[in-house]
Structures are given as C-alpha cells and as structure tokens.
C-alpha cells in the first residue's frame, strides 16, 4: 500500500491532494458520501485532519449506518470520533437529502 500512496505525490493526484489539504486547513467540517473508506492513504489524511483540531467534524451521509461496522476504518475509529463529538451520521444518501439536512453542518 505504501507504494500506491507514493503515487499521490505526483501528477493529478498530487494536485488534488494539495487542494483538499488547503481547503481542510480553512474548514472544520468534512461532509462525505459515497466513499468506501478502502484507501489507506486518504483515510490517514482524513484521520489526521479530524484529530488536528477539536472543532473538526466529519459528517457521513450514509443511508445504512450499520454497514460502517464492516469497514476497517470505522471499526477502528468510530467510537473515538463519536466520544469526542467529531462524527455525525446522517442516515441518508446525498441524493435523498434536503438543504435542511445539510445546512446545520455548513456553518464554518
């Protein structure tokens, strides 16, 4: 996996990671939907961001939250994220959300 992560540092992936990192430095909420949590490099970066600041919060739009137990990343991190108020789960897919569902998380 480390070899794959090294490729994040060149070309288009590097540009994307740079931009994501730049934006995460100025925001305290990350809303995720449709990501399978199987990419260790991305997961590590999200985890670092969540833990960097007490104000940082991850909002998951996931219609079937119980499925998260099957994902290694969430078996490892969910309890701590919830314990410290760093995780909100909206039991809907983005396509099923209204502005009312998302608006409370867009304040930063």
Shape, principal axes of CA atoms: globular
Structural class of the secondary structure composition? Answer: alpha/beta
Number of helices: 5
| Strand arrangement, major sheet | 1-2-3
Residue stretches low in confidence (pLDDT < 50, at least 5 long) are none
Could you say how many structural domains there are in total?
A: 1
SSE order: HHEHEHEH
How much helical structure, as a percent, in the residues?
40-55%
Question: Describe it for me?
Answer:
With about 110 residues, the chain is α/β, with parallel strands linked by helices. It contains five helices and three strands. A three-stranded parallel β-sheet has the order 1-2-3. It starts with a helix and ends in a 6-residue tail after the last helix. The mean pLDDT is about 90.
Write out key terms for the chains shown.
alpha/beta; globular
Topology of this protein?
Blueprint: H1 2-6, H2 11-26, E1 29-32, H3 40-52, E2 57-61, H4 72-83, E3 87-90, H5 99-102
Compose a concise summary of this entry.
The protein has about 110 residues and is α/β, with parallel strands linked by helices.
């Amino acid at each position: 996996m480390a070899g794959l992560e090294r490729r994040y540092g060149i070309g288009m992936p590097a540009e994307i990671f740079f931009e994501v990192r730049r934006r995460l430095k100025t925001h305290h909420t990350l809303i995720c939907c449709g990501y399978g949590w199987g990419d260790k490099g991305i997961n590590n970066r999200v985890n670092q961001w969540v833990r960097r600041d007490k104000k940082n919060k991850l909002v998951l739009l996931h219609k079937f939250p119980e499925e998260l137990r099957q994902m290694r990343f969430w078996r490892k991190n969910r309890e701590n994220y919830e314990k410290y108020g760093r995780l909100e789960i909206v039991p809907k897919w983005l396509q099923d959300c209204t502005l009312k569902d998302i608006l409370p998380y867009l304040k930063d």
